[in-house]
UniProtKB/TrEMBL annotation, chain A:
<dbReference type="InterPro" id="IPR036683">
    <property type="entry name" value="CO_DH_flav_C_dom_sf"/>
</dbReference>
<keyword id="KW-0560">Oxidoreductase</keyword>
<dbReference type="InterPro" id="IPR051312">
    <property type="entry name" value="Diverse_Substr_Oxidored"/>
</dbReference>
<dbReference type="InterPro" id="IPR005107">
    <property type="entry name" value="CO_DH_flav_C"/>
</dbReference>
<dbReference type="InterPro" id="IPR016167">
    <property type="entry name" value="FAD-bd_PCMH_sub1"/>
</dbReference>
<dbReference type="GO" id="GO:0002197">
    <property type="term" value="C:xanthine dehydrogenase complex"/>
</dbReference>
<dbReference type="GO" id="GO:0071949">
    <property type="term" value="F:FAD binding"/>
</dbReference>
<feature type="domain" description="FAD-binding PCMH-type">
    <location>
        <begin position="1"/>
        <end position="178"/>
    </location>
</feature>
<dbReference type="GO" id="GO:0004854">
    <property type="term" value="F:xanthine dehydrogenase activity"/>
</dbReference>
From TrEMBL, chain B:
<dbReference type="Pfam" id="PF01799">
    <property type="entry name" value="Fer2_2"/>
</dbReference>
<dbReference type="InterPro" id="IPR036010">
    <property type="entry name" value="2Fe-2S_ferredoxin-like_sf"/>
</dbReference>
<comment type="pathway">
    <text>Alkaloid degradation; nicotine degradation.</text>
</comment>
<keyword id="KW-0001">2Fe-2S</keyword>
<dbReference type="GO" id="GO:0046872">
    <property type="term" value="F:metal ion binding"/>
</dbReference>
<dbReference type="InterPro" id="IPR036884">
    <property type="entry name" value="2Fe-2S-bd_dom_sf"/>
</dbReference>
<dbReference type="GO" id="GO:0051537">
    <property type="term" value="F:2 iron, 2 sulfur cluster binding"/>
</dbReference>
<dbReference type="Pfam" id="PF00111">
    <property type="entry name" value="Fer2"/>
</dbReference>
<keyword id="KW-0408">Iron</keyword>
Amino acid sequence: MYDIKEIYQPSNLSETLNLMASNQDGIVISGGTDVLIRLRERKLKECKLISIHKLKELQGISYKDSLNDMIIYPGTCFEEIHSNTMVEKNCHCLWQAANEVGSPQIRTVATIGGNVCNGAVSADSAPSLLVLNAELELTMAHSKRSVPIREFFTGPGKTVLEKGKELLTAIKIPAVPEGSGSYYIKFGARNALEISTLGCAVFVTLNESKDVFEDFRIAFGVAAPTPIRCTQIEERVKGLPLTRETLKFIGNEVLKEVNPRDSWRASKQLRIQLIRELSQRAAEGAVRNAGGAIID
Amino acid sequence: MIKVIHMKVNGKQVELGVDDRECLTDTLRNRLGLTSVKKGCEAGECGACTVLIDGKATNSCIYLSMWAEGREIVTVEGIKGENENLHPVQQAFVDEAAIQCGFCTPGLILTAVEIVGSGKKYTRDELRKLISGHLCRCTGYENILNAVEKVAGL
């Protein structure tokens, strides 16, 4: 039996926001794969839960065409994200990340919104959402704001979300230009049921003749206190040719912008090695997905 | 607080009172006597408590019973054929000696039932990934994979 004092099951979004406003010590629960574990471990006690598990309004993926934003509602589970063909085509890195979370049984309930809002540095969806320039819609009872995901994470387990008041209500992914591709690599000590030791997502846009990086975006999980984008290297890569040399340049120079640390999961040295290696492999994967190839 | 929920369990509609703090594993085992649903890690890692919820393999230990309102639940008790025959997945587990202590078996069988139900065929590597939410401490997985491959392999 979980140590739950009260549990509310609002039937729509506005009821949820009102409940949050009147119960600021309430904890929002969606898939439950983090909140219920914390309850089991007694890290949460006598808690008041506001369950949005069955709120259809916050579930699903909306996609009109390639010119418009894709909207992923936060209560969408990873299994649904991974089975969506438009996500596979336009947001390949996110599609890959969605298949790396926990296990198949976890992915049928765990939601992308929970993954983002927990603010974990190892969140599998974070690097991909960072390179896709996702915008987060945060809603309160009487107001709404839009925050670029790059400004969302503020520290380990910390975000700009006003705890107890604000709810993530939409994840908007801007339309992806022609000639783009993306790729995500997760490194863990085992292949399943694993928390990322390091995650790397790359998004590229190639020029028409597919020999130069027109746009380059790279983000990491567990390479700093929060999931991060490395914007300096991004600027330096734009205009460079698709060669092995450029990849090496990325692998070495990106190290100036990361700040990995020792943890019981891996040493700082291993993480540095992973950043150097995975950034090159993810870049090559993204180039391939954009229809290009790296020249030796 | 006790709440009344309605769900379909193994094909039968049930109405029952559950504590709003309890997880589906406890409801199925203690209130409905479905003891094929095992309690293992209780943290969503081992997969022993796996049941099908609306056809999808889900860890019932981290699923609140009240969320099951209106859902359809299947446990191993509910997969037998008309003449009490074993389900093809169960038969494959027997034929391939995919069972030792048996603790992980009900969960694995339900995941395999979902895989078979998809109607698709998979490579051994794909099957390895599809059953990756189950821990088995006896078999080394080889015979389990042989069994799943027998019913859903290419």
